[in-house]
Amino acid sequence: MIEAVGLTKRYGDKTAVYNLSFQVRPGAVTGFLGPNGSGKSTTMRMILGLDNPTAGQVTIGGYPYRRLPNAPRQVGALLDAKAVHGGRSARNHLLSLAQLSGIPARRVDEVLGVVGLHEVARRRSKGFSLGMGQRLGIAAALLGDPQVLLFDEPVNGLDPEGILWVRNLMKALAAEGRTVFVSSHLMSEMALTADHLIVIGRGQLLADMSVTDFISANSADFARVRTPDTEPQQREKLSAAITEAGGHVLPEQDGALRVTGLALPRISDIAHDSDVRLWELSPHQASLEEAYMRMTQGAVDYRSTTDQKAGLQQPLPPGAQPPVPVPGQGQPGWYAPPPPQQGGQPFAAPQGVPGQAPAGPYGAPGAPGAAPGAPAPNPYAQPAPQAPQAPPAQAPAAPPAVPAAPPTAPAADLTKPEDAR
Amino acid sequence: MAATQVVRSEWTKIRSVASTVWTLSLAVVVTIALGMLISALSKNEFETMSARDRLSFDPTFISFAGMSLGQLAMIVFGVLVVSNEYSTGMIRASLAAVPRRGTFLLSKLAVATALALVVSMATSFATFFLGQAMLGEHKASLGDDGVLRAVIGGGLYMTLIALFSMGVAAMLRSPMLSLGILMPFFFLISNILGNVDATKKVGQFLPDQAGSRIMQVVTPLDDDTPYGPWGGLGIMALWVIAAVVGGYVLLKRRDAQ
């Protein structure tokens, strides 16, 4: 049993973990979830007494780890698979750990067999793949046959067979009555492995509940309804009827309807009553991954932004089209623009953004600086005559900054920065 | 947890990495080879020396000349033994297995120091005998006054250098940082301070200069060193204790990164 009370860890002015209280009970796999940098590993290190908490405490079986009698026989941990001296063989690595807790060398060969590394036991661990490293780390955790096991991201780098093995191993360990605490950032993996979930974000507790509770609390059931594609008026009719009956209708991209708030038989009855034929009526559950993302949305530290590539962009020659972005890249709900029109926007230098080279193509639609990439044809564009100066076909490869023609056109002059002239 | 378990584990760790063999054998080879070379050169030079120089000619000390370079390999050994744990991240597994950090550090230092002592003593005796063989008719023998003390002291000196490096590495954790500080310190700074008149007094109290006093049998004529051979080794021992205590206190307090 692991118990944390008001656990807090600060590094300088950065708070890694704040006021975390939870219990990890024996006989179950407890998943520890959170985005990158949310404090999972810091918490694990504090449980193992490697880091001292700034405030609060964490105990295993009632003792702080550093005062736990015969700790390595009570607790096994996989913290970092690569935390091994590369020049030492797998067997010697485990042997040195085994000798620390008075475990006989026989046991080392046993666990090497358990994790499937017996054939490479005498090879230097430098040449190990990430997956082999994980197996070695798991072997180290199993050495003392401990009652409490901690695994930090154990499936990283494992092949599907290895992932399945880890999953079954954890379940088996928990079924033997041990305490198993597994961190991960993969909700889907935890949904299959864990019985209980502890979710943190920015070092704070977001959820502490069983997986089944988490599912029912966080995933809204919905029904997908599809009416004949050929008769759009039927769709309108059904939407109206369902809304009238108290359901919520959300049209999906492919023409189906996402209905929430009504049971499937009820939807069928409504359709029948309003004389609408159905091509599909199926039950669905929002995935746990979605629920988890929604929960941690506000607590993600390292969020990716769209790649503007502004630092790489040469100032485009006047009249050149910026490269056409890959559809769907950047942000959700982004669709491919219509293909650039022949001769369209020959002087599409940024409007209202003086002193700035044309911005990258992946900017959010409508965002300032993204104007040149906007796919809408410019109604004031000069027609054909200028087109040969910079045919759009040249554009995608970010051409060298040799202007196809001296930038004498007034539009370019107005908007180019001084040094570009 | 019995300390013997930790000692056994540390022995497994130290014998199962290649760097142990490399650094120690380098220390042995460099010390002996350079000592023999300089002994042979000194023998040829003896004829042309002034009377004054002949009076302070110290065959024992000359045969230990290789230690100025050999100690660098000893420093690398000491640094690597400790900082390996940090650079590989193994420290987390080790400290998770040995929550009592004092036991961990002291066992590690004990094993590495014992190994260094054995190697250093063997090196010291070997370099003495081989150096004397090179010196021909000017040689000293082990039975002469103070010679046995100097030879044993040479072994102790190299061991203390290794232990000092371990203490520094335990404080600094990074192998690059530790070597980057220790190497220039012993190879350059100590020499410069010792040879400039203004700083000579300070230089005499640095660990290597104080410690190497024990290998001298014949004191130079204008010697004004305020301590004797054992006093010098004592000063060096104080440096070593300071480094080890510093490493211990920091390990105990700090997060294991």
What distinguishing features does this structure have?
heterodimer, A: 421 residues, alpha/beta, 6-stranded mixed beta sheet, 4-stranded antiparallel beta sheet, 13 strands, elongated, B: 257 residues, mainly alpha
Quick take:
The complex is a heterodimer of chains A (421) and B (257). With 421 residues, chain A is of the alpha/beta class.
Describe the protein's architecture and organization:
The complex is a heterodimer of chains A (421) and B (257). Chain A contains twelve helices and 13 strands. In chain A, the strands form three sheets. Chain A has a six-stranded mixed sheet, with helices on both faces. A four-stranded antiparallel sheet of chain A has the order 11-12-10-13, with helices on one face. Chain A has 421 residues and is an alpha/beta fold. The longest helix of chain A has 16 residues. By secondary structure, chain B is mainly alpha-helical. Chain B has one domain. Chain B contains twelve helices and no strands. Classes of the chains: A alpha/beta (421), B mainly alpha (257). Chains A and B meet through helix 3 of A and helix 1 and helix 6 of B.
